Amino acid sequence: MDDLTATAVPIRQAAPDLNPWPVTIATYNIHAAVGTDGRFAPERVAGVLQELDADIIALQEVPLGGSRTPNVLTMLQEATGFHAAEGPACIRPERRYGNAVLTRYPILSMRTIDLSFGSREPRGALDADINCHGHMLRVIATHLGLRPAERRDQIRRLLQVFDTEEMPVILMGDINEWFVWGRSLRWLVSHFQAVPAPRTFPSRRPLFALDRIWIRPRNRLVHVQVHDSRLARLASDHLPLIAHIDG
């Protein structure tokens, strides 16, 4: 057995009477639980989640079950004891696949947003309202396309659903924008304001800041960092990105 294979144990649970702030959030493209060694190992992803010890985690490239595909989200939910929501972008009898959210706090409602573009690979976003001991957070987990025109169209559609001031909005996921001054990034910055963007891809030697976290209002974002552990470098081709937000 690989000496980095993790035995997943439940992540700490918040007591019901605690003030949630600060809240730790994270985004993680798990690469279908296939590591940089080419091995399918959901237990390693669960081990990375244990290292993160985040309160709310957005996941991308998550196998969600099917006749030929295991449900990795179920495995991760069992390992963490968290609430889970799924947002499949690809739905076929043999394979369901897409975004997900894991959270120690209850999910009050959720919606899926179709971001598919022409004949390109199906894309989407998972939009969830989370109750952090009476403090509401709206979390959108997404994974955008590989082509610039595709991303621009998807960002336009996403920004239309952000037109609300009812609660803080967090957008996080794999934005797939390689260019610092790409138009889609400029649009997001103009809406959410600039935030730190550490490099997360590829995990063994990060060169690109593909994974991002934004929050509105911006002043709630306290700190952003990459989780770069030995296990994280093995478990996926992306490293997780972590942020701390305060009330």
UniProtKB/TrEMBL annotation:
Superkingdom of origin organism: Bacteria
Endonuclease/exonuclease/phosphatase domain segment(s): 26-238
Transmembrane region(s): none
Gene3D superfamilies the UniProt entry points to: Endonuclease/exonuclease/phosphatase
Range of residues in the leader sequence: none
Short name of any one Pfam family annotated for the protein: Exo_endo_phos
Designated name of the protein: Endonuclease/exonuclease/phosphatase domain-containing protein
